[in-house]
Amino acid sequence: MTGGSTAPAPSRSRWILWVLVALAIGALAFAIGRFSTFAPAASVALPGTSSPEAGFARDMQVHHTQAIEMAMEIYRKTDDEELRILSYDIATAQASQKGEMYDWLVKWGLPQSGGPMMQWMQDADGHAHGDGGVLTAEEARVAMGMASNAELADLSAATGNEADCLFLDLMIRHHQGAIPMAEALLDLGSEERALAVAQSMKTGQTAEIDAMQAMQSRLACTD
Question: What is the reported pTM?
Answer without folding.
Answer: 0.78
